[in-house]
Amino acid sequence: MTEEVKMSQKIRQLLVEIWSKLLTLLQGAKPQIIAILGAFLVGTIVLFASGHSPIEAYGAMLAGAFGDIYGIGQTFTQATPIIFTALAFLFAFKSGLFNIGAEGQLLIGGFTAALVGTSFNGLPVFIHLPLALLAGAAGGALWGFIPAVLKAKLGAHEVITTMMLSYVALYLTSYMVNYPLKAPGWVPQTVLITSSAELPRILPPTQLSASFILALIIAGITIYVLQRTTIGYEVRAIGLNPAAAESSGINIKRGLIFALVVSGAIAGLGGAGEVLGVHRRYIDGFSPGYGWDGLAVALIGGLNPLGSVLAAILFGALRSGGMSMNRATGVPLDIIFVLQALVVLFVAAPRLIRYLLKKGGFKW
Amino acid sequence: MVDIVDIINVGLFAGALRMATPLVYASLGGIFSERVGIINIGLEGMMLTGAFSGVLATFGTGNPWIGILVSIIVGGLLGLLHGLLTVKFAGNQIVSGTGINIFALGFTAYMSQIVWGSRGASPNVQDLGTVPIPLLKDLPVVGEILGNQTPLVYIALVVVVLSYIVLSKTSFGLRIKAVGEHPAAADTAGINVYKTKYLGVIISGMLAGLGGAFLSLDHLSLFALGMSGGRGFIALAAMILGGWTPFGALGASLLFGFTEALQMRLQSIGALPSQIILTVPYIVTIVVLAGFVRRRIPPSDYKPYLKD
Q1: Looking at this predicted complex, what is its ipTM?
Q2: Is A12 within the bounds of a domain?
Q3: Is residue A16 part of a domain?
Q4: Cis previous bond, A205, omega within 30
Q5: Is the dihedral of CA A158, A160, A161, A163 positive or negative?
Q6: What's the predicted TM-score (pTM) here?
Q7: Cβ–Cβ of A175/B276 closer than 8 Å?
Q8: Least CA distance to A159: which residue of chain B?
């Protein structure tokens, strides 16, 4: 046996060892982590195949998202509405409901908050601001209440009704700011809210507003309500096994309505946060799909509030980093939506991940 | 003063038929998927990807028919992906569909910048043109509505009839329904449940891709960012309103196509804000789903079927 053959055998053995170590590590990791890694791996192929350097692109993305104060502010600003919509999705999901209409609830909440924010003059901040936030929550709650009642009383499938109501919300708010409430000028938007309804910016000169803090508080409250209160327990019981919950005396209809109304209120509050903290007015179509992002983020976050916050920050970082990656390297921003979608597709089927890891243990 | 005949005339009905066509394809796609027990929220993304790939292939070959073929194939591949994730890997159907939608939006936007250097729209490509039908086109009223349409409009009507025949008159259709309604019983009866589910969801994707090809190759002859514009979701609504049957879906698509054509007319003369009319399909669907008009019951409980 020559020296060369021996050498190559050794290298081979080493590689196999590293690979199997890596596999054991991955098999032990949370499926969400693997989904994220898998998405970036596929993203690497897409970038490479379209003639861009993946290292350069990801590097610019990372630097853009966390490299300076502006990037960090932008990351958290982008994450904020998604934290709300993820919590909204998650809360309804705990009762077994699929609320895919957080988008509409967010739009309505943003709109009602803008209504209150623009309507009063001369109110003190400590009255006007809470009132505007409350209006946002109420608007979203109403948009959750409609499908909730249709589900509980008439059995209409919430996946379809919440989705359809999102479009109704989109066109309704669009009508309002294109016609009756349109500010002077070309852009379909309301006038600016009065300063007494503004959520303060917490990291000037970035747009990051107190809405981010509010999102974290709501995440905390969500954990508390789900884990520590009777109604939270009932919601989870309904989600786990409706028949068992009913036979133990839980009012299913009441629980479902509660879950979807709270879900809508959380999304509505997210809309209010955008309007009162970032845009300071309602702009037609201000949401680039925060509702759908929320669904993805809640799942990537393992359907728990803390995980959702982290996953939302990942999405925020992708968006914020994606923008500076686009400026620095010319890679189209849309690669980040491809990455997000890939994470969702991997998360959709945990069995796929297990299957791939099993297949990864092939013989060398 | 706007005259009523400026709004309601044969042109409106011809427009309604055109606007209904992509909905017809996609809602038929929805039926094939739901009949085998798989919700296909991803119709929207499959349409968009179909629209993009059709234009890309036409851009490369100069032949829109090749473009249409590619749209169908790419739609079918996305259907297969949805099938793999939800049948083989028993993943959540809503999540998989949502992933496909986000993927389609991002991927087509990304690729259009790579290929054409523009996020907004592709250059114009060869379109299909219209096919005037002799005799029919000379008939009054009917001829003006039906006689001078594009080929994909006619093909849509044919596909409706074909879908009806396949679902109601063939053993394949029977298998499809059996698998959706009662997979365990179908399995016992010797039907290959997984294969049937795959076929259903692949056909679903192919039809959605074709619907997308109509938008890009027939309606506009270019690809524009996010051009499916929620039609995949309206198609789901049409499917429900039509009670999961091909002719029902055709009727509902025509109704929604009509509201869209009406909306465009009213907007062009500034008679009524378009946003109000645009909510009609969604509100109608909610009302129908709530059983206020006639109860619609889905053909399946959509649970993944797992052989141990």
Answers
A1: 0.89
A2: no
A3: no
A4: yes
A5: positive
A6: 0.90
A7: yes
A8: B94
